[in-house]
Amino acid sequence: MSALGETTGRLSRERLRSARLSALFVFFAFSAAVADFLARIPQFKEDLGLDDAQLGLALLGSPVGALVAVQLAGTAAGRWGSKRVARVSVITGCLALLLPAFAWNLASLAVGLLFLGLLMGFTDVAVNAQGVAIEQELRRPIMNSLHGGYSLGGLFGALVGSGAAALDITPKVHLSVIAVVLAIAVWAGSRALLGVADDPHVVAPVEPTDTEPTPSGGGFVRLLSGYRAVVLLALIGLCSFVGEGAVADWSGVHLRETLDSSPGVVGLGFAGMSVAMAAGRFAGDRVVQRFGPVTVLRVGALIAATGMTLALATPWPVVSVLGFTLFGIGVAPVAPVTFSAAGNTPGVPAAWAISRVTGIAYIGLLAGPPVIGFIAHRTSLTTALAIPAVLVAIIALTAGAVRRETSRSD
């Protein structure tokens, strides 16, 4: 027992609990900020007179910004610390909602989303680095709950955005208020994140530091098998994240234009997915422990494919929202299980495997929605949204790749 109370590693439990709550709130806040914008996409499309291809082009600004940020965020966190990078990027990112809010044409919307994606990409890397540092100090997993906070933030933002649309509040007013409120809340709620002052080794640079030796001789087959597993895990993550991004960006447009839903309903598809994913992630560790990761992914993939099919096939908005919610239930465990399996792939350095799997999955999350827009322009939005249903079904065929994580339980 130290003067700071009961300790775990170098820091007190009280200090780590505060840091965990701060990290959880940052996850929540930056997801809420993005979701508030997503809920108003149909209104932006109407106000700016964009077709599906033009909207897809505008939405491409966000992944471009995020991909640039991912390349720079590790260096920034290593130089200034992940606490400082997380706080500055998420506060500025919340305020960056003002850029798309006041967009007047396609180009200004795309530029606004470019900056929003850039700042949110920095936030994503920095706050995940915080999660890893806290997890290492606690010596038990907490990342599922942190990502559950992200899902709750998405739900909150979707509901607020849908409520603003139902009340006929303009996107300019709605997003301006949300930007200022969230920025102030994050400034106050993120101060307990771990920094160098807590311990110079607590928040290490985000760049991979794995130094596991490369197997040689008889280990070559094991190494080759490990790389093959990483490719399959990356495919699983990509298939899941394309669907998540598609529901986030296009479910509202589908409900509004295809099913002629009222403005207050258009955000409920994303809200349903978000609440289902939050519940699934908070309960995910217990479910995986009981049934095994392979079974959970296979059953989840079938539920997700069924849900997306239902959402697209029904003429009733309420049933479509239910379908998007089922999709969220199915994909909820995919990211935690897949990333954990990547870090435990035999014969491959853990940091290398995780960075490759998460990087490719992230591309699916960010680049998938613009591709959906381009395909919808050539065919129809219903046809384009059928692609994620096919992709999540592929997860059921490749789920055996996660058996490496806990082979004794499957």
SS element count, helices: 16
The end-to-end distance, rounded to whole angstroms, is 40 Å
**Morphology call:** globular
**Topology, number of strands:** 2
Output mean pLDDT: 80
CATH superfamily of the largest domain: MFS general substrate transporter like domains
Describe the protein.
A two-stranded antiparallel ribbon has the order 1-2. The two termini are 40 Å apart. The protein folds into two domains: 1-195, Growth Hormone, Chain: A, CATH 1.20.1250.20; 220-410, Up-down Bundle (Growth Hormone, Chain: A), CATH 1.20.1250. Residues 1-8, 204-224 and 404-410 have low confidence and may be disordered. The protein has helices at residues 13-38, 41-48, 52-59, 61-80, 82-95, 98-101, 106-138, 143-166, 171-189, 220-258, 268-291, 293-313, 317-331, 334-343, 350-378, 381-398; strands spanning 7-8, 11-12. With 410 residues, it is mostly helical. It is built from 16 helices and two strands. It is 76% helix and 1% strand.
Chain-wise SSE layout:
Elements: E1 7-8, E2 11-12, H1 13-38, H2 41-48, H3 52-59, H4 61-80, H5 82-95, H6 98-101, H7 106-138, H8 143-166, H9 171-189, H10 220-258, H11 268-291, H12 293-313, H13 317-331, H14 334-343, H15 350-378, H16 381-398
Helix pairs in contact: 1-5, 1-7, 1-8, 1-9, 3-7, 3-15, 4-5, 4-7, 4-15, 5-7, 5-9, 8-11, 10-11, 10-13, 10-14, 10-15, 10-16, 11-12, 11-13, 12-13, 12-16, 14-15, 15-16
Task: Give a quick set of tags describing it.
410 residues, mainly alpha, Growth Hormone, Chain: A, two-stranded antiparallel ribbon, 2 strands, disordered N terminus
